[in-house]
Every structure is written in C-alpha cells, then in structure tokens.
Specification:
Blueprint: H1 2-16, H2 44-54, H3 65-68, H4 78-88
Protein name: Cellulose 1,4-beta-cellobiosidase (Reducing end) CelS
InterPro entries: Dockerin_1_rpt (IPR002105), Dockerin_dom (IPR016134), Dockerin_dom_sf (IPR036439), EF_Hand_1_Ca_BS (IPR018247)
Enzyme class: hydrolase
C-alpha cells in the first residue's frame, strides 16, 4: 500500500516539477517589482536571490527577471541590487521603474 502511494507521489513530483516550466494559478499581469520569488513580499530573500542571479551562482530559472529590473534599463545588474536594498531599508518607497522615487 505504502509503495503504491510513494510511487504515485513520486510520479506527481516528476510530472509537475519539469525544469524551465512554471505552473501558476495567478493570471498573467505586470510584474510585482522587487518580488523575485513571487511570494507576495519584498524582503531580504529577494535581495539574496538577486545577488545570486547577478553573480551567476546557482539555478536562476525560477527568478522573474522582469521583476528584477528595478531601474528599467533592460539589464539585471548591481544597480538593481542597490535599489532593492534601499527599498528594503525604507530609504526609498518606490522603484525607479515605477516612476518618481524618493532619493
């Protein structure tokens, strides 16, 4: 009984965990800037993911690069990391890509 259950669970994990394919129930829309892991929060976890992305460290397939481009220049780089850090520390209250920013 347990072997069958484990086999079914293992099969489901393999079927729904295909690299490069993301399943989402949320309707497509504009990116939530700064929320790289799409958990609805902008926090230090997003900063850590952005740092890893910039340094090309690990698997970055699950990062929303549109949400990571915080200055709107089409490139995800250390400037975006600095902007995200300033936002998390409440130095700014908006990202440059969203419009006016408090510097």
């Amino acid at each position: 009984m347990y072997k069958k259950l484990l086999l079914v669970l293992f099969t489901l994990v393999l079927v729904f965990n295909v690299p490069g394919i993301t399943f989402s129930l949320a309707p497509p829309g504009p990116p939530y800037y700064g929320d790289l892991n799409e958990d609805g929060m902008i926090n230090t976890m997003n900063a850590a993911l952005l740092r890893r992305c910039i340094l090309h460290f690990g698997n970055n397939n699950y990062i929303d690069f549109n949400a990571a481009d915080l200055d709107g220049d089409g490139v995800v780089d250390s400037v975006d990391y600095t902007i995200l850090t300033r936002y998390i520390l409440n130095i700014i209250d908006r990202f440059p890509v969203e419009g006016d920013s408090n510097n």
